[in-house]
Amino acid sequence: MQRSDKTRRFLSRVLRDYYSKVDLDLPYRFTMREFAFVYFDSEGMHRPVAFQSKKEAREFLKEKTPLHSYYSTAYYSNPQAPMAEKDWLGADLVFDLDADHIPGSEELNYFEQLDKVKEKCKLLINDFLIEDFGIEESDMELFFSGNRGYHVHVRKSEVLDLSKQARREIVDYITGVGLDLGVILPFETIKIGQYKDIDNVKKVTRLPDENEGGWRKKTRKLTFELLRRWDKMEKEEVIEEMEEKHGIGIKTATGLYKDLFVEGKWKKIIEDGVLDVFSEERRMVNANTFEKIIEGILKEENVQEIGSKIIGSTDEPVTGDTKRLIRLPSSIHGSSFLVVQEIDLDSLEMFEPLSDAVPSFLTDKEYDVEFEKIPELESVSVKNEEFEIQEKVTIPEFAVPFFVLKLGAKLL
Predict the structure, then answer these.
(1) What share of the chain is helix, strand, coil (3-state, %, to 5)?
(2) pLDDT tens per residue across span 12-52
(3) Of 95, 132, 145, 237, which residue is 20 to 30 A from 266 by alpha carbon distance?
(4) How big is the chain by its Cα radius of gyration, in Å?
(5) Is there a cis peptide before residue 317, judged by omega within 30 degrees of 0?
(6) Considering 92, 98, 259, 321, which one is annotated as catalytic?
């Protein structure tokens, strides 16, 4: 979008004022990092840059007032040298969750995107990093990206020298690449009869035990969640979902629905974890049929929200890259003019970007803005103050960058 001279002057002044006041939050071992910057009136990225002191870095930002600021996830002996001469020493493990990678995000407004990404971030931290990988909260740092996502940094010493391949395997695990039901679902051998002295037995698939971990635990949990959700839905809706998402024919789906929800056998699956609960007279319905339900679970949206849509949204190249650039903490994000803000892990639920990441020096001084195309929003809240969306609106200075950059307003 072409900005007016008045808008450009306003944004340039905000950058100047911000970097003249900010107490820069430099990353761990910053003297071993490469830095890179994008400026308001120049093309391309200025790199490599290195700093020997916090004072030097602060003076640089104060003088240059960059529009976008980055630093390397990698550590180098000589960070200011060309890449071939830097001497790589290790890298943080970084997960970059962004609304761009959420399927259907283009149908969501900015606030809905933020809510979706926050849910993915909580799942990534709790279900994978803490529960599956055993990473302590003290070895993680969490940042709001400044725009539409979150960055999770892992600095546990064991991850620093991981190769690209090892990092790729972490991505594959979280995305559920190569999940095999034969490995995930255990089975037991049960006696179903006897002929003379020979037992007639069969193998019966079960859900993983409650004390299992990893994808087995997730499969058990997601199966229970699906059954509870279906129990509250109308029959036609459940059968349609079985057909569309799990590839089960209508006759089989109808029989499956009767066994599970008319006769209530879904409760036995939850109570005992057994799948061999189906009626003998409905030959098309059995434990193997139910495995199709689980196959669907591991492909459909509810697992994707835990796996691929997180790490799809974690931008696989970022996590797998040992020399990646990431947003500089406490810098301004040039696409929103919100701050790249560190967040305590236990504060993520309460974090609100449009309240907590707005530059604090911006005032209540009023400005007039105008929309050529009015956004499909009735109102917007910035710093806990509600503003009605109209063709022309008067707003305080602290709301102007968001209205201009994210909602398409023009400063009058």
Answers:
(1) 45, 20, 35
(2) 999 999 999 898 889 999 999 999 999 987 788 999 999 99
(3) 132
(4) 27
(5) no
(6) 98
* DSSP secondary structure of 275-308: -----TT-TT-SHHHHHHHHHHHTTSHHHHHHTH
Q: Say how far apart CA 153 and CA 117 lie, in whole Å.
A: 16
Annotation says 41 is catalytic = no
Out of 92, 96, 259, 276, pick the active-site residue.
96
Q: Is residue 259 flagged as an active site residue?
A: no
Residue the block writes with tokens 């810098």: 331
Q: Is 98 among the residues known to form the active site?
A: yes
Tokens encoding 67: 């529009």
Q: State pLDDT tens for residues 261-296.
A: 999 999 998 998 888 777 665 556 677 778 888 888
Q: How far apart are CA 20 and CA 59, in angstroms?
A: 8
What domains are there in the chain, each with its CATH number?
5-172+313-361 (3.90.920.10), 181-304 (no CATH), 362-412 (no CATH)
Check 92, 259, 315, 321 and give the catalytic one.
315
Do 256 and 226 contact (CB within 8 A), yes or no? no
β-pairing verdict for 35-38 and 68-72: antiparallel
Q: Which residue has the tokens 């669907």?
A: 296
